[in-house]
Amino acid sequence: APEQAARMKKLQEQEKRQKVEFRKRMEQEVSQFIQATGEPRRRFQPMNKIERSILHDVAEVAGLTSFSFGDDEDSRYVMVFKKEFAPSDEELDAYRRGEEWDPARAEERRRLRELAAQQEEAELESGPAPPGPPNDYKDKYRHLIGSDAAKAAARTMEANKAYGCVPVANKRDTRSIEEAMNEIRAKKRLRQAEDE
Fold first, then answer.
1. By three-state DSSP, how is residue 40 classified?
2. Which pLDDT belongs to residue 26?
3. I need a labelling partner for 109 at 20 to 30 A (CA). Which of 4, 35, 64, 94 fits?
4. Element (H, E) at 167
5. Residue 77: CB partners within 8 Å, gap ≥ 6?
6. The overall pTM is greater than 0.85
């Protein structure tokens, strides 16, 4: 156990030394990058997660912008950008897709997107409105009754002065309520007498 603990301590010290050396090397490369006037960005070799985090930290301390790109852990790399040449969203998307950034091609894509948006807007303005749900019952049934059928019917309709009152001449049954009830009771008694 003491030998294993000593070996572990030695390995940890060795890793710590390697990290310190790596950090110094990255600080030198970043300072060279800052001093290089014609270089707006620098791509570093693929590295592991710890090395990438060290490089991101060094770039942040130096006042630079840094991003990691790549799909799997073995091929992920870091790109460092100077602040005045910070990447656009389109540029970052190109790097994420694994493509090289081409400003001329990106400008062409942007122009095509603007043209498509303008055409779509023109079609919306000039074309008929898409059919949607009607928001009024009159609109909903317009195809059945027309637009002025209900208005014409409303004009010709007159109020019935005797509304709710049926004249005696129109009644089929001229008996009073008492007479009708007496007849119903008599039929009921007759049925009961037949059943007994």
1. coil
2. 92
3. 64
4. none
5. 43, 44, 45, 46, 47, 68, 69, 70
6. no
Backbone φ and ψ for 78, nearest 5 degrees, come out as: -115, 140
pLDDT at 94: 81
Residue position matching structure tokens 């694994």: 98
Is the torsion defined by CA of 138, 144, 145, 148 positive or negative? Answer: positive
Q: What is the pLDDT of residue 147?
A: 65
Residue 151 pLDDT: 60
For the sheet with 41-43, list strands across it.
41-43, 77-81, 65-69
Token code pair at residue 80? 């460092």
| Number of other CB atoms surrounding residue 175 within 10 Å | 11
Task: Tell me the domain boundaries of the chain.
Answer: 2-87
DSSP string, 113-157: HHHHHHHHHHHHHHSPPPP---SSHHHHTHHHH-SSHHHHHHHH-
Q: Which mean pLDDT values do the consecutive 10-residue runs of the chain (196 residues) have?
A: 90 92 92 86 89 91 89 84 83 80 80 89 72 64 66 59 65 80 94 91
**What is the CATH code of the structural domain delimited by 2-87?**
3.30.1370.50
Beta-bridged to residue 79, according to DSSP, are 43, 67
Q: How many secondary structure helices (H) and strands (E) does the chain include? A: 8, 3
